[in-house]
Amino acid sequence: MADLSAKDVEKAEFAFSIYDADGTNVVDAVDLGNVLRALNLNPTNATIEKLGGTKKKGEKLLKLDEFLPIYSQCKKDKEQGCYEDFLECLKLYDKQENGTMLAAELSHTLLTLGEKLSDPEVEQVLKDCMDPEDDDGFIPYAPFLKRLCGREEED
Q1: H-run or E-run covering 83
Q2: Most buried of 10, 19, 120, 148, CB within 10 angstroms?
Q3: In Å, what is the CA distance from 108 to each residue of 58, 104, 137?
Q4: What is the pLDDT of residues 99-114, one digit of tens each?
Q5: Are 70 and 52 a contacting pair, CB within 8 Å?
Q6: What are phi and psi of 116, to 5 degrees?
Q7: How many CA atoms lie within 13 A of 81 on its CB side?
Q8: What is the pLDDT of residues 112-131, one digit of tens each?
Q9: Is 99 left (phi over 0), alpha (psi -120 to 50) or beta?
Q10: What is the DSSP string of 30-62?
Q11: Residue 155 clears pLDDT 60, i.e. is over it
């Protein structure tokens, strides 16, 4: 992979190994999006499907040498938002301009905008990433976004 650095390949091998459930050096294609997201990429579900991801477990297996070109292509893809893009979007909901937004608006946004999430998916994201609401129903959105994008370690 001429377009991946040695460090990128090492990171990809590590992420791939996490999803190699039985140690056979293959990953189920249903986990392709998870592996790419573990590498701090944000591909859409449509992109994952285009790159060979499947919706059902057991339909297709990927070897590391098949995954590396997918990772390389996904790294180059500009059709994914970055932390700063998402932060700017959430600022639109920050009526008091104090770094907070209504938790209900965040939930509504996740359910209705862009690639829509299901109710259970939104519940899981909020449970995993959201700080508790204050007495007025507001949450700080930057920490939520950092957890969602896997950027907590950068602070």
Answers
A1: helix 83-91
A2: 148
A3: 33, 6, 14
A4: 999 999 988 888 887 7
A5: yes
A6: -65, 140
A7: 14
A8: 877 677 888 888 888 999 99
A9: left
A10: GGHHHHHHHTT----HHHHHHTT--SSTTS-EE
A11: no
